Amino acid sequence: MPTSLPSIPSTFALGVCDYPEHVPWEQWRRYPERQRELGITYVRIAEFAWSRIEPREGEFDWTWLDEAVEALADADRLIVMCTPTATPPAWLIRKHPEILPVDAQGRVRNFGSRKHYDHTSPIYREHSRRITTEIAGRYGQHPAVAGWQTDNEFGCHDTARSYGPASRDAFRIWLEARYGTLEALNEAWGNVFWSQEYTAWDQIDPPNLTVAQPNPSHVLDFYRFASDAIADFEEEQVEILRRLSPGRWVTHNFMMHFRDFDHYRAAECLDFVSWDSYPLGHVERYLPEEEKVRWARTGHPDLISFNHDLYRGLKGRRGFWVMEQGAGQVNWAPSNCLPATGAVALWTAQAYAHGCDVVSYFRWRAATVAQELMHSGLLRHDETLDRGGAEVAALELSGRPTDDVETPVVILHDYESLWIYDEQPHSEGASYWGQVMLFYQVLRSLGVDVDVRHADADLGSYSLIVAPALQLMGDERARPI
Amino acid sequence: MPTSLPSIPSTFALGVCDYPEHVPWEQWRRYPERQRELGITYVRIAEFAWSRIEPREGEFDWTWLDEAVEALADADRLIVMCTPTATPPAWLIRKHPEILPVDAQGRVRNFGSRKHYDHTSPIYREHSRRITTEIAGRYGQHPAVAGWQTDNEFGCHDTARSYGPASRDAFRIWLEARYGTLEALNEAWGNVFWSQEYTAWDQIDPPNLTVAQPNPSHVLDFYRFASDAIADFEEEQVEILRRLSPGRWVTHNFMMHFRDFDHYRAAECLDFVSWDSYPLGHVERYLPEEEKVRWARTGHPDLISFNHDLYRGLKGRRGFWVMEQGAGQVNWAPSNCLPATGAVALWTAQAYAHGCDVVSYFRWRAATVAQELMHSGLLRHDETLDRGGAEVAALELSGRPTDDVETPVVILHDYESLWIYDEQPHSEGASYWGQVMLFYQVLRSLGVDVDVRHADADLGSYSLIVAPALQLMGDERARPI
Amino acid sequence: MPTSLPSIPSTFALGVCDYPEHVPWEQWRRYPERQRELGITYVRIAEFAWSRIEPREGEFDWTWLDEAVEALADADRLIVMCTPTATPPAWLIRKHPEILPVDAQGRVRNFGSRKHYDHTSPIYREHSRRITTEIAGRYGQHPAVAGWQTDNEFGCHDTARSYGPASRDAFRIWLEARYGTLEALNEAWGNVFWSQEYTAWDQIDPPNLTVAQPNPSHVLDFYRFASDAIADFEEEQVEILRRLSPGRWVTHNFMMHFRDFDHYRAAECLDFVSWDSYPLGHVERYLPEEEKVRWARTGHPDLISFNHDLYRGLKGRRGFWVMEQGAGQVNWAPSNCLPATGAVALWTAQAYAHGCDVVSYFRWRAATVAQELMHSGLLRHDETLDRGGAEVAALELSGRPTDDVETPVVILHDYESLWIYDEQPHSEGASYWGQVMLFYQVLRSLGVDVDVRHADADLGSYSLIVAPALQLMGDERARPI
């Protein structure tokens, strides 16, 4: 853990996500100056650029990225550099197809988008370390590089868990490390039930494609294992970044209300956490039918603020970023509305008020190609200012909100409870997040500020502890405070 | 067929399903006495206990089961012993993965729950006979053993049909036995349509993954074949039980409104039939939205009584068991409600009034592990009496309802009609059971007692014959009565 | 392109689809005379008869078809002969299973219905040319043969695209022909986005089973490729028919509102287009819940007339057929209603009024076997006249509607726009056809006659051009008219 975090802003700042490799240099070189004019301090780059950095195995092309880094430095912008591991190139996948993940239905998930890797694949992990070492070695000590983002949105597109040979083999090793003996595992899972007892480690598979529902203990351990694999993968990168990029912070951009790994462990090796806020994209997913229209163009305020509170609490101290703040329509929700007038400014102010250090918009300019062609940016496809950009230009937020806001109420939260609850909800439509939000929304409607903390956190300072859907209670958790 | 059924009760009795292998001996040994206190006569055991009986191939551990049998005998309880074939152990599956069933999407269905076998697998059948011989040899003549249950809930979890190599090969043999020549098969199926004519037996596959809908005659024969495979599998076990356990009855626990095999043929080799009654678990499956809430905590009375009438008619004479009577919340329905006060007593009385000999509750004590952790028992997890147990304790039913109830109306029923109707319902939401229940409910609302009988049964005694959705009508069925 | 089309009727005529191979000869021989009595001129035959024409590879049985042709000729009926390629026989599939298509989930789609072929399979294409040559050689110059239908309903049952090795390999070749270099392809698709750049042609797969949504340009080219494959397959047949059946027309029966290939290109090699009109079968697919009941027994008039207008415009001149006109209940819709009294006559008159040359009913007699057992015909299963047949018998339509109807308004339409729009609809439930129908229905409600034409057509004669959901606009399309 680093003791000093030199580049974290002492006052609230803005950022943006940009992709220099998407735009001809003559055109892109004007962007840093425009970003400065718009009041943007941080620019995140290189996020998915592996194929441009290493077009063929072992052949590196740094020219374009060197130029981009220098142009940003020349405009006094600060760079958030990324490990480009979320998009292993075609040459790597074709050479090692065993990197590809396998879904719960047993289908190999193919190249042709992003996140096409099983985190447990030894070959992928080797290449992840290799490309991280290369990029960290090149830019780790560049004065304009403020810090790093690892990979991108762990688990996005249902990739936290893979059910193929790589995960199967790693799961067995993980289980042996956890339980030591098959007797202990059989006892812990209750495998006497339905004669599920194992007599050899290699009889154990991931809990998919079983005839009836799998043993919930089997499922829970598989989720723990897959969550650990993400953290292990991340920690390998962070170890390299700490070594080759001293004095810079490292973060990761988590997602809204995401369920598939233990964010507390994944946050441990980071200096602070970030999350990606797309208020409009989740309206249809989380709200009942009659509420959807009402909040279609603003997002629901409680859904947004809950995630601020959740991620603020992840490391148990103030300070977090919104690494991607949606600033217009997205392209991936069932319906992709335009935000209401003022919504982008409102979301920014809401983040500020919840203790966020930096709000970084996604993305600078709308893409003219491929999957995100219909996703907005601060600039339109023709480089004119879009509605989100115009609101950002007019923003006036400075200083920092005070750190001594009193939050008298804490909601206890942990991912094991989520996994257990959602695996057997006992009532159609019941969900862990639904239970948590029920309490959160009532508290917010009473005007109460709320913290969200892990169930094992020190809770001594709170007047009221709310523990919705807490599933595991040992002596430690049950202790009086 | 046995001529005497020594152990069938002459008066109505109660039973319970219990799993001695799930509970430490020091704890479990107190159960038989508590069962006696609760008025429970029959205790079903060993249902899924293969891995405890035979932990490794050929190594048998009878100690725990011997102790359980003796403890029940000491408490004067009667034992319903099971063939544990519904849960082949991990060592068997890993050695012979070809036992595993394949679903209609072509996916191998894996170990990790129960019912993971293709009934047509020659290797599985060999092991089914082997374990049946072992358990029947050990307990077949024990004085406390009243009778046997074969396997568990044939076809549960969509396992009546498998689409892998074992079933494919067996299907071809079955077809050749049925039709003799490909010309006869092509003619019977109308394969001239769409050039579906076969010129070799090995051109015939199960009717899954076809481009458009498969030939309904192909489907019908595949369903008949799969149904026969279950009956063959069962008959092999029954033949062994008859030989090694003389004077004991054999039954099987069928399911509510189940569709996937011909229960009439499967009942032929049994002394009487049993069924598993979970009134709450099927409310959401069979009732329209507006009716669900009304019956959520009692179940719908007609859905329950229809199954009593159906299973009473399966062998054409009075006398049947409810082998598993739900006595609290289940864990497998979309929503798992608690029964209303008095519901467990009501269900028991309803079974009694419909001519049921024994109502056996599922399960004695709630499981503390694995898939059924959230399923109720007569005892709670902590061994206190749960609401169902309390109602059972208060029951006062004795004697038998008279056998000479007049049932002036008969509903004709057969599984081939069901398969044909549901394969091409001609109207969205139409179903065979829906058609049958329509008439059944009208008749019940008029206060009429109804029998349900096979379309080929002797119908001479009825005043009114109702034949909803009868699909096949030959000379025999069309004869005047 | 043929310059004279000798057999196209100068006055409106009726036809019917019949399957002599389904009915014993002694019974079928009476049909041509009954068809004449009903006023039916054209009889389509041999559509799915491959297994009867060639029961084993290279063994041909023409007897039954010769007899049918002579019987129709004797009754002065005109024959629409078909290439029977929509149903490759079992012996061919078993010998060459690589013909079978693969769905987007990676599952091989099996024999057992129809359309079980990947259009790009070189082996299937060879057999398609071979059987076309055989049947064209035998009947191509028979005086009773008026013309030909190729295959059946291209793309039906989701068969326009296959995702297996045959299509994968052909797609790579198609791409290399289109782009020349990988650099050009990477640039055109914007593969810099998410590091999707290819460095070898064999890194490119069909765009299925990707982790996140595939690149829409990748998808668009795959759709173009699959569409071309259908046209190539068709053109091979047409070339043979032109050579061996001089003076006869060739058509194909397209489907209602079908999406999966470019019908304009597929129409190029045809003399005129036909489509299959099932007004009742699409009510549940295209209409909102509250409209379904209203139109359940007549079909929606705009849905029908739009397809007349669409197919009339496909070759840019008047004259088209309805090759299959539903005349009773179908068997494949979610609910299969009987048509209202008069509906069959109404549909016939509607086709006539929209410039249709021939309405040919599907089918002559209801099938007594296999998949279409529950589909109506003009005759019932017992050969009595069904309700559709009775309406046809009473029809009095003669002459032709005038050709000089003024259609002041044109709706622009093309399949690339459809593919692009529907791949990323940006709003749940939005669809290309929905957009087009919105404008079409408003225009029709104003009493305006509408043409539907390709976006590149000569539009000089129209007063109003409506271009709903037009997605691609180059210089040529943007030119002033």
How would you characterize the overall build of this protein?
The structure is a homotrimer of 481-residue chains. By secondary structure, chain A is of the alpha/beta class. Helix content of chain A is 36%, strand content 12%. Chain A has 2 domains: 13-166 and 215-393, TIM Barrel (Alpha-Beta Barrel); 406-481, Class I glutamine amidotransferase (GATase) domain (Rossmann fold, 3-Layer(aba) Sandwich), CATH 3.40.50.880. In chain A, the strands form 2 sheets. A 9-stranded parallel sheet of chain A has the order 5-4-3-2-1-9-8-7-6, covered by helices on one side. In chain A, strands 11-10-12 form a 3-stranded parallel sheet. In chain A, helix 6 (122-139) runs parallel beside helix 9, helix 7 (165-179) crosses helix 9 (216-244) and helix 9 packs antiparallel against helix 16. The longest helix of chain A has 29 residues, at 216-244. Chain A is globular. The A-B interface holds A 105-106, 189-200, 202-203, 205, 207-218, 424, 426-428 and B 19, 21-22, 48-52, 55-56, 84, 87-91, 93-94, 101, 105, 107-116, 156-157, 159, 284, 329, 331-332, 334-336, 367-374.
